[in-house]
């Protein structure tokens, strides 16, 4: 194990920053066996790359277009053998504070070679940071949800979600094309995507933009209730008695939007 | 040496008498005071307008004549010390008052000492206005002090500083000359940011600063950032508040370029039109940037305040989103620098071309400007 070189992946949207890390890694190569397995310009590219090459360590920037470092670290955990992630940041007071509180490893840019070497030597003893600790880091809503399918991480863009429905242990993600199974908490998802998704039932969140309308249905035991009609898919979703107020609220919103479009 | 505690010194500051805002303020204030005076004089409310008309017959000719003379003498007044200027204006008010009075007295017989009464009233109105303009200048001047502080704290984002340092470090081994140039640019940029930015500077200087700043950003972002300059009709000698454009460009890069992985264009369009200098900055608008816009608002508010202080109603700053682009439009009156600075004269400085050493001629002249400011601060330290 000790003889096998440490495989490192570099993720940063700025080319000079990647080059600098590469130079530093080659400086460290004298002190310990390591190899740079690749570079990516954002979290999404890095995930793609990790399907082709395996890495023990990912050094990732935090603020990047398309997918930032913290979101990337959460998706990486879905890989069969997730690498250790160490964040690099030039300046991000909030993030740094949270890293310290949650004992998440990070390096400040510009990075000193001695500091990098210390971090590298630690890697074989480190385990990936848990999902709960990553969730505690300050971050905007994820742009993707991720599920593991045939040992690959599949990304589902948040704007493609029509609804999320909790069933026993899993949550079903419905997009216009198909369904995915996700292992997360519906309550946490509601907190994260509250501006995009609305709760219509104890076990169901629907994308506001996907709602085509509502329909009154007579229930089996004589209880009439509302059903959500969706854009693009035939199935309908029941609205629970507790959430009935949203029928009016969304109806009003849609009318207003319709008027806006007509003008 | 300047006084260390400036806050409690009573300011006696003459406004610029050629500024539309100043003229408007004076006309409105004098007429309002006349209206109140008429109200006090009138025994009944319905006689108010009659009294007002009587008063304006004397006040308006006096006011208009004074404003006309002040307009003509504005450049001369601007060169005098504030106390000399204030006395000169008082003398003008008295002289024209006497003139108007003799003209009016020829038509209407007046009681003795009426002229003295007229002059006393005119002088107290003048004193009131002088106090008003002094207070107004004071109310707006924190914006200038703040701009310096802000420049250090928020304006030059630590994000930019550390990322740029990191980019320079990445060049040192492979392209040491480029690294050298980049460090010199950073030195220039920070020198301007740290000096006391109270006085107006030629637009060409501000443009040079912007070029250096964007050069550093280009180092980090390479192809993701392209910059379009439209400066053909730019008057390089126009006087502008320092750091009028650079903070806006920093916002443009931070909010418009960095959140996207596709290349984007920042365009700078500056031209002279109808006696006004217009500057239009554009950058791609990222609807879902996910970045905090508080910094952006702060920069806009600070620049707007400083424009107001220097140019009053003759300047404007507007921002809007149009065609997927964020646009800031600044309009200021064109005032040429009296003694054109060394930088504005040198075409190479304005064009931002660098000689092989990586040093611009501008860098040297800016050093001379900055040196006294640095000395000042050093003297202040032991007291503070």
What is the CATH C-level name of the largest domain in chain B? Alpha Beta
Q: Could you give the count of β-strands of chain A?
A: 15
The CATH class of the largest domain in chain A, by name, is Alpha Beta
Give the proportion of residues in helices of chain B.
55-70%
CATH architecture of the largest domain in chain B: 2-Layer Sandwich
Helix and strand sequence of chain B: HHHHHHHEHEEHEEHEEHHH
Strand content of chain A: 25-35%
Compute the number of structural domains of chain A. 2
Count of DSSP H/I helices of chain A: 8
Oligomer: heterodimer
Largest interface, C-beta within 8 A? A-B, 20 and 23 residues
Low-confidence sequence ranges of chain B? 1-8, 340-384
Q: Any key phrases for this structure?
A:
heterodimer, A: 263 residues, alpha/beta, Rossmann fold, OB fold (Dihydrolipoamide Acetyltransferase, E2P), 2 domains, 5-stranded parallel sheet, 5-stranded antiparallel sheet, 8 helices, 15 strands, 30% strand, elongated, B: 384 residues, alpha+beta, Heat Shock Protein 90, 5-stranded mixed sheet, two-stranded antiparallel ribbon, 13 helices, disordered N terminus, disordered C terminus
Describe the 3D structure:
The complex is a heterodimer of chains A (263) and B (384). Chain A has two domains: 6-135, Rossmann fold, CATH 3.40.50; 161-262, OB fold (Dihydrolipoamide Acetyltransferase, E2P), CATH 2.40.50.1020. The longest helix of chain A is centred in the last third of the chain and has 18 residues, at 245-262. Chain A is an alpha/beta fold and 263 residues long. Chain A is elongated. Chain A starts with 5 loop residues before the first strand and ends with a helix. Chain A is built from eight helices and 15 strands. In chain A, the strands form four sheets. Chain A has a five-stranded parallel β-sheet, sandwiched between helices. A five-stranded antiparallel β-sheet of chain A has the order 10-9-8-12-11, with no helix packed on it. In chain A, strands 13-14-15 form a three-stranded antiparallel β-sheet, with helices on one face. The mean pLDDT of chain A is 87. Chain B has 384 residues and is of the alpha+beta class. In chain B, helix 1 (20-41) packs antiparallel against helix 2 (48-79) and helix 3 packs antiparallel against helix 4. The radius of gyration of chain B is 26 Å and the shape is elongated. Helices cover 61% and strands 12% of the residues of chain B. Chain B folds into two domains: 20-140, no CATH class; 142-380, Heat Shock Protein 90. Chain B has helices spanning 20-41, 48-79, 82-107, 114-140, 142-155, 158-172, 176-194, 203-221, 246-257, 294-311, 342-345, 347-351, 361-380, and strands at residues 201-202, 225-230, 239-240, 264-273, 276-284, 316-322, 325-333. In chain B, the strands form two sheets. In chain B, strands 2-4-5-7-6 form a five-stranded mixed β-sheet. The A-B interface holds A 13-17, 19-20, 23, 41-42, 63, 65-66, 90-92, 108-110, 140 and B 157-159, 161-163, 165-167, 169-171, 173-174, 219-222, 258-261, 290.
């Amino acid at each position: 194990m000790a003889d096998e070189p440490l495989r490192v992946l570099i993720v940063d949207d700025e080319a000079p920053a990647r080059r600098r890390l590469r130079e530093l890694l080659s400086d460290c190569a004298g002190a310990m066996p390591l190899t740079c397995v690749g570079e990516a310009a954002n979290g999404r590219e890095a995930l793609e790359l990790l399907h082709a090459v395996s890495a023990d360590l990912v050094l990732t920037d935090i603020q990047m277009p398309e997918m930032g470092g913290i979101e990337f670290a959460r998706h990486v955990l879905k890989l069969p053998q997730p690498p250790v992630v160490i964040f690099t940041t030039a300046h991000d007071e909030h993030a740094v504070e949270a890293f310290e509180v949650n004992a998440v490893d990070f390096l400040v840019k510009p990075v000193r070679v001695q500091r990098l070497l210390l971090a590298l030597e630690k890697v074989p003893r480190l385990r990936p940071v848990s999902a709960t600790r990553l969730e505690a880091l300050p971050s905007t809503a994820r742009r993707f949800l991720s599920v593991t399918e045939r040992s690959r991480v599949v990304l589902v863009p948040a704007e493609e979600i029509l609804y999320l429905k909790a069933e026993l242990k899993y949550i079903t993600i419905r997009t216009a094309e198909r369904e995915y199974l996700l292992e997360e908490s519906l309550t946490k998802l509601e907190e994260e995507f509250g501006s995009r998704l609305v709760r219509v039932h104890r076990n169901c969140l629907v994308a506001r933009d996907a709602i085509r309308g509502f329909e009154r249905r007579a229930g089996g035991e004589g209880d009439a209730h509302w059903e959500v009609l969706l854009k693009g898919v035939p199935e309908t979703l029941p609205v629970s008695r507790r959430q009935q107020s949203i029928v009016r609220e969304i109806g009003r919103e849609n009318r207003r939007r319709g008027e806006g479009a007509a003008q | 040496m300047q006084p260390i505690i400036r806050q409690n010194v009573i300011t006696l500051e003459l406004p610029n008498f050629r500024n539309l805002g100043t003229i408007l303020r004076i006309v409105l204030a004098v007429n309002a005071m006349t209206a109140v005076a008429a109200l006090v004089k009138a025994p009944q409310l319905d006689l108010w307008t009659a009294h007002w008309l009587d008063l304006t017959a004397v006040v308006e000719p006096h006011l208009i004549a004074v404003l006309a003379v002040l307009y003509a003498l504005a450049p001369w007044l601007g060169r005098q010390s504030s106390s000399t200027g204030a006395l000169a204006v008082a003398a003008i008010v008295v002289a024209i008052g006497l003139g108007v009075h003799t003209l009016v007295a020829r038509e209407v017989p007046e009681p003795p000492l009426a002229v003295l009464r007229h002059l006393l009233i005119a002088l107290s109105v003048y004193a009131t206005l002088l106090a008003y303009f002094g207070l107004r200048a004071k109310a707006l001047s924190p914006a200038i002090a703040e701009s310096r502080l802000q420049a250090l704290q928020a304006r030059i984002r630590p994000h930019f500083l550390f990322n740029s340092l990191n980019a320079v470090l990445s060049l040192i081994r492979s392209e040491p000359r480029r690294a050298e140039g980049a460090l010199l640019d950073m030195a220039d940029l920070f020198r301007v940011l740290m000096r006391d930015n109270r006085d107006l500077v030629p637009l060409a200087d501000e443009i040079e600063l912007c070029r250096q700043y964007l050069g550093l950003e280009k180092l980090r972002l390479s192809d993701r950032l392209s910059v379009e300059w439209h400066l053909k009709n730019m008057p390089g000698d126009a006087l502008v508040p320092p750091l009028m454009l650079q903070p806006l460009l920093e916002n443009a890069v931070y909010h418009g370029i960095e959140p996207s992985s596709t290349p984007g264009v920042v365009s700078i369009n500056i031209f002279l039109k109808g006696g006004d200098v217009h500057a239009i900055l554009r950058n791609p608008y990222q609807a879902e940037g996910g970045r905090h816009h508080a910094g952006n608002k702060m920069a806009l508010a600070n620049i707007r305040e400083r424009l107001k202080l220097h140019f009053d109603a003759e300047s404007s700053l507007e921002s809007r989103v149009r065609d997927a682009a964020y646009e800031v439009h600044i309009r200021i009156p064109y005032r040429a620098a009296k003694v054109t600075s060394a930088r504005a004269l040198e075409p190479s400085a304005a064009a931002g071309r660098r000689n092989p050493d990586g040093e611009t001629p501008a860098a040297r002249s800016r050093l001379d400007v900055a040196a006294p400011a640095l000395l000042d601060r050093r003297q202040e330290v032991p007291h503070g």
